[in-house]
Amino acid sequence: MNAGKKPCLSGRGVTKEFGFGRNKTVAVDGVDFDFYEGEIISIVGESGSGKTTLAKMLLGLINATEGDIFFQGKKRNIGSHRKKKEYWKSIQAIFQDPFSSYNTFNKIDSVLLDCIRMRGGGRLPREKKIELMTEACSFVNLKFEELTNKYPFELSGGQQQRLMIARIFLLKPQILLADEPTSMIDACSRTTILDTLMQLRDEIGMTPIFITHDIGLAYYVSDTVYIMERGKFVESGTADQVILNPKKPYTQRLINDVPKIYEEWDLSTV
Amino acid sequence: MKHTIRQVFRSGKFVVGFSIFMGILLIVTFYPLIIRDAPLKIIGQGTFFAPGIYVNVYDSMGSPHYTILLDDAAAKRIADKLDDDDRQAIKEWLVAAGISEDAIEIENTESLLDLWVNNFDPTTRIPGMTNADRNYYIRLNTALDGLLSTEGAIVASVNPETGALEEKGVIRQTDYVNVNQVPNVRVLPLGTDNFGRDVLTELVQATAVSLRIGIVAGLIATFIGLVLGLVSGYIGGLVDDVIMFITNLFIVIPSFVLLILISFSIGQEQRGAFTIAVVIGFTSWVWTARAVRSQVISLRNRDHVNLSKLSGHSIAHIIAFDILPYIASYVVMALILQISSGILAEAGLSILGLGPRTTDVPTLGLMMNWAMIYQAHILGKWWAYFPVIIVIALIAFSMNLMNTGLDQVFNPALRD
Amino acid sequence: MGNAVLEVNELTTKYITRFGENIYAVDHVSLKVEEGKSLGIAGESGCGKSTLALSLMGYYFPPLYYTSGQIIIDGQNISGMDPDEVRKAILGKEIAYIPQSAMNALNPTQRIINFIEDVIEAHKPYATKKEIYDQAKSLFEVLGLPAEVLNKYPVELSGGMKQRTVIAISVILSPQILIADEPSSALDVTSQKMVIKMLRNLMDSGLIKSMIFITHELPLLYNVTDDIMVMYAGQIVEKAGAHEMVFTPIHPYSQGLMGSIMVPESGLRDKKLTAIPGVPPNLKNPPSGCRFAERCKYVMPECRVTSIPLRDAGGGRAYRCILPKEFLMEAYERERGER
Q1: Is A118 on the interface with B (CB under 8 A)?
Q2: ipTM for the assembly
Q3: Which of B17, B112, B342, C185 has the greatest number of CB atoms lying within 10 Å of its CB?
Q4: How many structural domains is chain A composed of?
Q5: Of chain A residues 55-94, which have a CB less than 8 A from chain B?
Q6: Is the pLDDT of residue A1 over 70?
Q7: DSSP readout, C137-194?
Q8: Superfamily the domain B2-46+193-414 falls into
C-alpha cells in the first residue's frame, strides 16, 4: 500500500533510557518505523508506554540513547542550534495541556510573531505581519482583533488549542506531532479541533502524527495506527486492520477494554 | 506587572512589613541630615550616661534667673534625696523611740520628716543600738537639716591676686533657669555608650551601615545562587553534577563556621564593612542555588519551554524569557530573606569580635559587641544594647512579614 | 413502576464566592431513581454535575449552600436536616458517595481493614474486630476482591485496586443508593473496566438498591446506567433511557455531546461527528432565556426571552427546547449523515 510513497520520518532501533544502573528504565525500546508522507498516523498507548518520550525524540527535544532517526530519507543531524532551528521549520507540535503550553508572560501577538519570524518574515512591514496573523486566526475561527493585546490564559481551553493550530498554520511544517491534542478539551470542542486540524492538513499538505491514548480518536482520524506497549510497537497497520481485527493479544485486550456503544461490551473478559 | 504589584500591596502582611521597613529607611536617610554629628564622636567623658536632657551647669548660672515659688519644690528636692534605705532607717528609729508603727507613713515624705524633726534627739539612747548606728543617725539628721534649710548656695570665684575665694552670687532655692535660654543643652534620648558617644546617632548610622551590608550580601548571594541554579538546572548533565557537588560541599560545612574562618583570616585591619558584606554574600548563596535549581528543573520540561524551543529561541532567550519570569517572584522572596539573614549574620560575627574594624563605622553588631565587652547588660545600662536589639528585630520582622505577604500572593494555596 | 429510592424535587443549591456572589450551580433539578435502576448524569466540565452529586447527599458545607427543594430518600426528607444529623444518620447508611479522587483520600498509614473498622464502629459500636473482619471478608468475596487486600496499606495497591477497595468500603453498610462521581476517570482502560464490572455486580447482587453515575465519558455511561440525564449550566436539558439518549438525542446540546462520541468500532467511521461552538455561560449571571441559546444553531428570538421549561417527549423522555422533537431528531440524522 505504501509503494511509491516515500517515508518522511523513519526510525531504526530508536531507544531511550533514563537513569543509570539499577535505576535504569527503558522508556522507548528499540522501535523501528516508517511514517509516510501524506498519511495520518496515530501512535496509541496507555500512560507509561513511552509514546510521549518517542514524540519528544522525534521532535528533537531530547536525544535518543541509541538508534537513528531519518528525516526525508537522510539521517537526521540536529547537533547545533542552527540545524535544530532548520529542523523545527519542518516539524512542529501541539501539546496536551493548552493551559501550560503558553508562556503566561507573553501576549498572543508575540506567540504568532515568533512563528512569522521563524518563517523568515521578521523584517516584513507591520501591516503585512498583522495581515498574516489575521489570516491564521480566521482560519481557526478566532478573531485577531479581539485577541491582540490579550494573554493566552484569558482564552478558554478550546480557543487556546485553536490558537496553537493557528501557530501551525503560520509555520506550515511538513510534519505535525499532536500529543493528546484533545484530551483536556470538552467533548463538544473536540470535534472542532480535529476538523480544523484535518482542514489544515489539506491546506498545507502536512503529515499529522497523533499521539493518543484514545483508541476511538485514533480510529476516527488516522490511516495508519501504531500500538505501543512498554516502549515497543506491538502492532501496526491500517486503522481498520489494527482496530477492527487486532492480531496481538495486547491490542485485543486494549480494544476489548474500551467501552463500546454499537456492539455489546463484553465485561466477562476481566 | 502592574497587576502583580497592585495585588502585592493588597496583602495586609506585606503592607505592614513594607511600612515598617520604609519607616526605618526614612529615619536612616533623614536623621543624618538634621543631626550632623559624626556618629563615632566621643562627646561624654565617662561611660554610660543615662538617657535624658543634659543642661550645662555653668551656662545655667550665667543665664537669667527667675524666681518661681512652688510649695512642693523643697519637698520634691528632699524626696529625691531621701532614698528607700534612709526612710526605712528613720522608721526604725521612730519605732524604737516609742512611736506607734501605724502613725508612720514611709512614703509620705512630709509627715515622715515632721515626725523626725519633732522627735529626733541625738542624745536619746536607744537600747541595743550600736555607736556606729548612732553616728549614722546623727549624720542623716545633719544632712536633712541642710536640705531643710532655706539658705541659697553661694557661688564663689578665685581672686587672681589674693588667691582667696570671693562671693560672686547666691543661687537661691527658688531660682529657675529657662532651658531655652541656656546656650548649651544636649538631649540624649538614648544616653551615651561606654565611650561616651551618643547612642541614638550611633544607632541610626549603624542601622544604615548594617542595611547596606545586608543588601550587598543579599544581592551577591542571590546573584550567585540564581546564576548557579539556572545553569545547573537548565543545562543539567555534567555541569549540574559539578555545581551540585560544590553546593553540597557548602551545605555540609556550616556557613557560619566558614564565615568565622574567612573573617578571622582576613585580619582586623583589612575588614571593612564592605568586605564583611562580600564575605557574607559568598557564604550564603547555597540554599538559593538549590531552590532555584529545583524550580528550573520542574520548569524546563514544561510545554511552554518546549514551545519556545520549537519557535527557534536560543538557550539564553529561553532562560531569560521562559524560565526567569516564572521564578522571579521566588527570587525576590529569596532576596528579602537573604538581606535579613545578612544583617543577622553581620550581627553574629561582630558580637564574636569578627565584624568590621571598629574605627570607621558603627554597625548594629559592633554596638552589641561594645555593649557586651563593657558589661552594659550586667551594669543594667539597658540603653546601650536594648535599642539595638529592637532595631535588629524590627528589620528582621518587617522583612519576614514582606516575605510572607509575597508568598501569599504568589502561592494562592496559602491564602486565607 | 418500582418504588422510588431517591426523589428530588426542584432542588436548587448555590455557591457563595469570596466576593459574595451567588452561583446557582444546581438550578431546579428534579429527578427520581427507582429501585434496581441506575441513573447517569452527563455534561461538560463546569455544567454542575459534581455539584449535583454533592447536593444530593444533603450534607452542605461552605461555600455550598442549600437554597430550596426537597431530597426524599426512602420516604424521608433530608433537605432541611442539620448537617451533623445527616452525616450520622444518612451518609454511608442511606447514601454512599464516592468523590472524584476518592482513591487518593486513603490515609497511607492505615491498613484497609482499619478504614472498614472505622466505618462500622461509627454505626455499630459493639462489633468485635473478628465480626468486622468476617463481614468485610464476605463482602470482598462477593465483589471479587482478594481478601488479602484487607491487611494491606493503600500504597501497596494499584490504582484500580485502590479505587475498587474504596467502593467496597463505601457500600459496607449496604446503602440504598450509591453516588459515584467519575469513579474511573483516572484509571487505565483495564482497571476502568474492572470498576465498571464491580459497579454492575453491586447492583445485580442487591448490595445497593440504585446508583447515580456521573461521568463525562459517554460510552461508559451508556454501558453502566439505565437512564441518562444531560446537564447544561446547572439545569437538566434532557432525560431519556440510555439507548435512546445515545442514538437519538433530541436537545441540540445532547446532540452535540452524543455526536462527538468516538469509539473504536466500525459504526464510527461512516458517520460525521458533530461540534458545538462557543463556551458555556457564566453562572454568575446566567442568561434569562434558554441557557444554551448562545451556542445553539436553531436559536430563535424568543429563545432569549423567557426560560424554557422541561417538555415531556413521551416514553419517559423530556427535553428543554421550544422546537418539536421530530424536527430536532431529523436535523440530527441529516447532520450526522454519511462522512
Answers
A1: yes
A2: 0.90
A3: B342
A4: 1
A5: 56, 59, 61, 81, 84-85, 88, 92-93
A6: no
A7: HHHHHHTT--GGGGGS-GGGS-HHHHHHHHHHHHTTT--SEEEEESTTTTS-HHHHHH
A8: MetI-like (1.10.3720.10)
